[in-house]
From TrEMBL:
<keyword id="KW-0720">Serine protease</keyword>
<dbReference type="InterPro" id="IPR029062">
    <property type="entry name" value="Class_I_gatase-like"/>
</dbReference>
<keyword id="KW-0645">Protease</keyword>
<protein>
    <submittedName>
        <fullName>Peptidase S51, dipeptidase E</fullName>
    </submittedName>
</protein>
<dbReference type="GO" id="GO:0006508">
    <property type="term" value="P:proteolysis"/>
</dbReference>
<comment type="similarity">
    <text>Belongs to the peptidase S51 family.</text>
</comment>
<dbReference type="Pfam" id="PF03575">
    <property type="entry name" value="Peptidase_S51"/>
</dbReference>
<dbReference type="GO" id="GO:0008236">
    <property type="term" value="F:serine-type peptidase activity"/>
</dbReference>
<keyword id="KW-0378">Hydrolase</keyword>
<dbReference type="InterPro" id="IPR005320">
    <property type="entry name" value="Peptidase_S51"/>
</dbReference>
């Protein structure tokens, strides 16, 4: 089975996504799954890696490892060995555009698609949620120039034909995403912090870590934008969404 969990946002260190993290581990169907953290988007800070190890290792009982692509500069065989080892892969948040550039330069994008086909549980938050979709509504420019930046469309791995907007309830992101969607040819999915979309084979459902975390679908028709909350807590066909 092919399994992806994309999380809209939240601090893993504050257990804001813990109910979702539990579901990610459960999807492996393993008593002690092997969990691989990929912190490329954030530049691989030690504290983020420690937080993942604490939550997924000590709290959720996984055997954990980290895929360092910047600090270690591994070759393709070393990368493939770690990705093949994992029962679940969790991609951290940060600069989506930079992350995708690094992945493509090292062939990580293709390795992750292969892992998806093998049934490895793929998951992540923010940039780590965007990456599984065809596109993401990204704040990557903010990392390069905090004074003068705007949201951009960033290309992901394309497992799902939609554009994903994480952190939908932060700042004025929803307003700007709605303006973007008026001119976008396709379907948009917006996830608030603490909310995730779980996609298993050709079905999906919404999971959240607290009650007031929501998901929405954005569709354009005849130059009008229609926005609907996605309320499904049981699996339904994914093609009903896109």
């Amino acid at each position: 089975m092919k399994k992806v969990v994309a999380i809209g946002g939240g601090e893993i260190s504050k257990f804001e996504t813990f109910k979702i993290d539990e579901e990610i581990v459960k999807l492996t169907d393993k008593a002690k799954p092997k969990a691989l953290f990929v912190p490329t988007a954030s530049g691989e800070p030690e504290a983020y890696c420690d937080n993942f190890d604490f939550v997924y290792g000590k709290m959720l009982g996984c055997e954990t490892d980290i895929l360092f692509l910047i600090k270690d500069d591994p070759d393709s065989s070393q990368i493939e060995k770690k990705i093949s080892w994992a029962d679940l892969i969790y991609v951290g948040g940060g600069n989506t555009k930079r992350m995708m550039e690094i992945w493509r330069s090292k062939g990580v994008d293709k390795m992750l698609i292969d892992a998806y086909q093998r049934g490895t549980v793929l998951s992540g938050l923010s940039a780590g949620a965007i990456c599984w979709f065809k596109y993401g509504f990204s704040d990557s420019q903010r990392f390069e120039n905090q004074e003068n930046w705007h949201y951009t469309k960033v290309e992901g791995l394309g497992l799902f034909d939609a554009i994903l907007c994480p952190h939908l309830n932060e700042e004025n992101r929803r307003e700007l995403f709605e303006k973007f969607m008026i001119d976008f040819e396709g379907v948009g999915i917006g996830l608030e912090n603490g909310c995730a979309i779980e996609i298993v084979d050709d079905t999906f459902k919404i999971i959240n870590s607290f009650e007031n975390a929501h998901a929405y679908v954005f569709r354009r028709s005849e130059n009008k934008l229609f926005v609907d909350e996605i309320r499904h807590r049981d699996y339904i066909p994914f093609n009903l969404l896109i």
